[in-house]
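Why run this: before we spend reagent on co-expression, it is cheaper to look at a predicted model of the complex and decide which construct boundaries make sense. The entries below are exactly what would go into the expression plan.
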Amino acid sequence: MNKNAQATLEFTLVFVITLLFVLLTVNLFVWFNHCMVRRQVAYEETRSMRDSSQVGKTDFFQPPKLNVFAPGGYSDKQ
Amino acid sequence: MWGNLKTDYTINQKGQAILELATFGSVLLFCLALLIHFGMQMNYQQNAQMQAFRKGQRLAYYKQGPSSLASLSVLKDKPAIDPRDRWGFADRVTVGGSATIAWSNTLNGLFVNDISETPDDRDMSRTYIEVNKKTDADRAQVTDGRGLADSEINDNLDKNRVGTQAKGVFTTAGWERVPDIQGYSSIGVYLEDSKHEYGTREYYPLEINPQDIKVFEDPSDPQQKSAAYQFAGLRRTLSSAVLIRNADELNKFRNGESRPVSIIAVKGDKGNECDKDNYCGKLTEILIIKLQLGEIDSYYVDVRPWDKDKSLSTKQGLLLGSEKKLEHGSGTKMTVTGTAEGISTKTESAATQEVIHNIRLNNGKVVAIPVKFKPVETYNYEVR
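The model came back. Tokens follow.
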């Protein structure tokens, strides 16, 4: 069995897996942040001082569907 | 005796990277699960707090009466990934929020003892915008003749601050006197249905003949007067009403499209000459709150970065971006003092920096709040 460049090959494989892992994790946390920021914005924009019909409105925000393979963690932009 | 060490060592190198990935991968997955747990909990917690406030707001709003108080706590047990859990079992994490809501038609109002007195700005609800905050103990209140306090002048907290004359206090509402209430064709009141605690708002409009609205004084404080009407066998205080003059306004009121005004003070046709039953006559004059007359709305918000592309003409509040000016003055000087013990230096700078923050009021006018700072650093070295 040819053992030349064995370490390089295995390193390449592991490096690609690690990068993919990191990218997916970053997408996941970008999604977390997006949810928290947009929820705060939606909360302030539905304040009843601006519009009395918004009193007690609890369904002011729907988080976008998580998709770790899409940039930003979600594919439908909100 | 020892064999071929090189060969033995080469055999043990097979699958080294994959083995390390398996070992450290599990550690990585554990850390990832912890971070996901943290992120999920933060999201759930933020949502729970917001839900608690909105539900409390609904509870307070749907109670009958001019003002009400409601407290609500919300607890939720949400499933969240936790690497410390057993396989196949999703443990739950408790998140919660609580809120106490006071709902009143007169929160934006002002307090007057007598309808005949002219309210000044010290009685008005106000918005304070603190720029470069200082402690209360150091604050020197300076009025500008209107009763509004200017920003602080003496500053012990920030020694380098020269001081500012900028006004950081703005009224959020004004008032208006409405005479001749008996000249209106009817007075409209929206009554909320107190049976509905959650769900859609149920209300019905009630039209009252101005002749039926009576003014009474408070026996314990004769200066305090309130207007009342009879409905369903109860005497109800008139705290907000729709003033109706003609058929168009009446239709609008009946369709629920009118906005009631908040009543602060009332006057009966007997004035202060009330009888022994505390009756002061029929309602003739009222003081109402006019939100449009305030300098800045009470829900002013910071102009956010993503608002840059939109027209800012309707935005009010603290504007993004501040201007900075630096004046060098007489410049920087260093004094060197030589003594028998050694040499010491003292560096002083006469430069001052001015930072200007801008606030837009609800009439579109921009108010600048400049703050001056003296130089911060003086370097003293001693060589002995």
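The radius of gyration of chain B is 34 Å. DSSP finds three helices and 23 strands in chain B. Bring this page to Monday's planning discussion.
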